[in-house]
């Protein structure tokens, strides 16, 4: 029997409990959320050179491509692609194609907005979208006005009644001999809320479905970079795309920085959530750290500027920069994280770095909550500590009570990265069950655990798309799906009450059986979360004291027939929540199915 003392709450639930954490890993932005369709749009020859650009000459036409250094439309983009066409006619044009991020996803009756910088003696270029298999041109247009001076040209490509697929490429074609240079060749589909330089609609909708309260950005390891030079240098991610040089990410592929700081912040705005801003704190992954003191001061100033860019009014220096970029309204910022996983800096330098950052930020912004990434003895005490847990299912089952025993006298906890690492590329039902068990512990301890975020959030499931196994949401260029863990998260966050109810669980209970009960008195609802990680059904009577339950309960169930059962890009909805009803008039007698996560929504006044 599960007895719920509805009128005796143990403590409030942290309203910030569930959020998102992302970084550039597994092609999360380029090749993922960031909707750019052209791969290697800026020809960074020190990373991937001409990769994904392929000469595609029709008939007897002839053209070659090569990188030209020191010639581009901006200081940031000085290495360009030169196309030399020796033979080409209207009937047999020469061409160069881009194969996209494992293809280019096209839909019927849709307009794609493109642009490129070019200079040359050709006058015009034909731009087309072409089906890889049939060679059929599904959209085409001509860009005129190409001269000897670098200039940006824009174009639109509209598809007709085609079949939706990712099996397409972009073709630039040339109908006469000559030479032309290209830089920043770009193509976007319609984006979420129609933002220019925006995000994929399907992935934004999937995140909205998780009912998050915040986004921790920009990482993760991506904040730190392998070296100081490869950190997320936010100032180099602002403004026109032609002014963004991009940088190498620690997950071994280049980042265009099309997803720059302002785009991250607009992402939070579009989901109506708040940013949790992680500032670079002078430590990079290969072990270098900046010595605290005078050497560190420019990095501290940079963090202060970044905070001002985020939350300062348009009258401040960096708030004015944000306003000039089109966003006069400050973003709501309440949490700043100093560094990432500084517990891995075995030199112990965080003990010196933290006080310098924390004092400077606190002096200027005393109301911000500061998050440390390791326990600290010196300087200001952090408001929160960011704890990370990547575990196997059996480990999580044994540690759901971990925070029950942590004293409430120190900083609050941000479980800033956690996941059950089982299943690939996305997690399976067995992982989702252990995730749910762990979440019951987080909810029960949400007087201490103020926030949490699963990681990693995204994975591009194409071969070569994954650097880290066991992720939450998978996708290719055209489609996306949620893992069973995604649905467990969504259920827990959707039915989050405002107070944790006191409960007692008595009688015969299987191992791997976990509960969490929260209540929202204003809504008149009690949420009973039940996790049965065993292969046996779990009979359960639910007794509510201190409130009258009325009407049938809604029962939301996520279950499957094996721990390895999962969703995939080709079978995206095998394990998804189903809703049923449960009578409550003669008492709540219920059986929790094997291998299941359930939420009972009780109407109780
Ligand atoms: O989420 C993957 C990585 O795990 C993050 O980049 C890092 O913070 C952690 O070690």
Provide keyphrases for this structure:
605 residues; alpha/beta; Jelly Rolls; 32 strands; binds alpha-L-arabinofuranose
Task: Produce a short descriptive summary.
15% of the residues lie in helices and 35% in strands. The chain has nine helices and 32 strands.
Describe this protein's structure.
- The protein is of the alpha/beta class and 605 residues long.
- Among the domains are: 53-188, Galactose-binding domain-like (Jelly Rolls, Sandwich); 196-456, Glycosidases (TIM Barrel, Alpha-Beta Barrel).
- The chain has 9 helices and 32 strands.
- The strands form 6 sheets. Strands 30-29-32-27-26-25-1-28-31 form a 9-stranded mixed β-sheet, with helices on one face. Strands 2-13-16-17-18-19-20-21 form an 8-stranded parallel β-barrel, surrounded by 4 helices. It has a 5-stranded antiparallel β-sheet with strand order 3-6-11-8-9, with no helix packed on it.
- The model has no long low-confidence stretch (mean pLDDT 97).
- Bound molecules: alpha-L-arabinofuranose (AHR).
- The site of alpha-L-arabinofuranose has 11 residues, from loops.
């Amino acid at each position: 029997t599960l007895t719920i003392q509805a009128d005796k709450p143990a403590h409030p639930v942290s309203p910030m409990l569930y959020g998102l954490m992302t970084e550039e890993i597994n092609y999360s932005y380029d090749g993922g959320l960031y909707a750019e369709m052209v791969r290697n749009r800026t020809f960074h020859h020190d990373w991937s050179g001409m990769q994904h650009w392929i000469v595609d000459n029709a008939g007897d036409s002839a053209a070659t491509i090569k990188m030209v250094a020191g010639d581009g439309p901006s200081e940031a983009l000085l290495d360009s692609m030169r196309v030399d066409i020796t033979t080409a006619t209207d009937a047999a044009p020469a061409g160069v194609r881009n194969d996209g991020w494992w293809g280019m996803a096209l839909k019927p009756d849709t307009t794609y907005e493109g642009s490129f910088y070019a200079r040359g003696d050709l006058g015009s270029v034909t731009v087309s979208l072409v089906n890889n298999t049939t060679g059929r041109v599904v959209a085409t247009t001509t860009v005129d006005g190409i001269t000897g001076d670098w200039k940006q040209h824009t174009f639109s490509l509209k598809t007709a009644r085609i079949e939706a697929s990712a099996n397409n490429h972009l073709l630039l074609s040339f109908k006469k001999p000559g030479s032309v240079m290209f830089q920043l060749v770009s193509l976007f589909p319609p984006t979420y809320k129609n933002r220019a330089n925006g995000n994929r609609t399907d992935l934004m909708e999937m995140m909205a479905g998780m009912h998050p309260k915040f986004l921790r950005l920009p990482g993760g390891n991506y904040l730190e970079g392998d070296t100081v030079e490869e950190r997320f240098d936010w100032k180099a991610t602002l403004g026109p795309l032609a002014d963004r040089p991009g940088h190498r990410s620690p997950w071994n592929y280049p980042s265009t920085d099309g997803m720059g700081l302002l785009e991250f912040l607009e992402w939070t705005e579009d989901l109506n959530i708040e940013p949790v801003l992680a500032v670079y704190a002078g430590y990079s992954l290969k072990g270098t750290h900046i010595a605290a003191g005078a050497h560190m001061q420019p990095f501290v100033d940079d963090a202060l500027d970044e905070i001002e860019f985020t939350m300062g009014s348009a009258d401040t220096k960096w708030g004015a920069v944000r306003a000039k970029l089109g966003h006069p309204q400050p973003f709501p910022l309440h949490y700043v994280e100093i560094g990432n996983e500084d517990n891995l800096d075995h030199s112990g330098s965080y003990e010196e770095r933290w006080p310098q950052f924390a004092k400077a930020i606190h002096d200027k912004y005393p109301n911000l909550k500061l998050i440390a990434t390791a326990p600290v003895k010196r300087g200001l005490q952090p408001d929160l500590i960011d704890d990370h847990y990547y575990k196997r299912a059996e480990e999580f089952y044994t540690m759901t009570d971990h925070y029950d025993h942590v004293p409430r006298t120190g900083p609050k906890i941000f479980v800033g990265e956690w996941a059950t690492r089982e299943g690939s590329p996305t997690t399976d039902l067995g992982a989702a069950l252990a995730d749910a068990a762990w979440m019951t512990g987080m909810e029960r301890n949400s007087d201490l655990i103020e926030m949490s975020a699963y990681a990693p959030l995204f994975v591009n499931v194409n071969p070569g798309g994954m650097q880290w196994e066991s992720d939450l949401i998978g996708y290719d260029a055209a489609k996306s799906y949620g893992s069973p863990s995604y649905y467990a998260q969504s259920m827990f966050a959707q039915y989050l009450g405002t107070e944790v109810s006191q409960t007692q669980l008595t009688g015969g209970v299987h191992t791997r059986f976990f509960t969490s009960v929260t209540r929202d008195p204003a809504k008149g609802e009690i949420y009973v979360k039940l996790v049965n990680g065993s292969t046996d059904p779990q009979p359960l009577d639910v007794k509510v004291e201190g409130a009258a339950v009325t009407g049938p309960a809604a029962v939301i169930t996520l279950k499957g027939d094996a721990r390895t059962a999962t969703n995939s890009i080709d079978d995206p909805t095998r394990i998804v929540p189903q809703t049923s009803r449960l009578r409550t008039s003669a008492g709540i007698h219920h059986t929790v199915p094997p291998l299941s996560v359930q939420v009972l929504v009780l109407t109780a006044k």
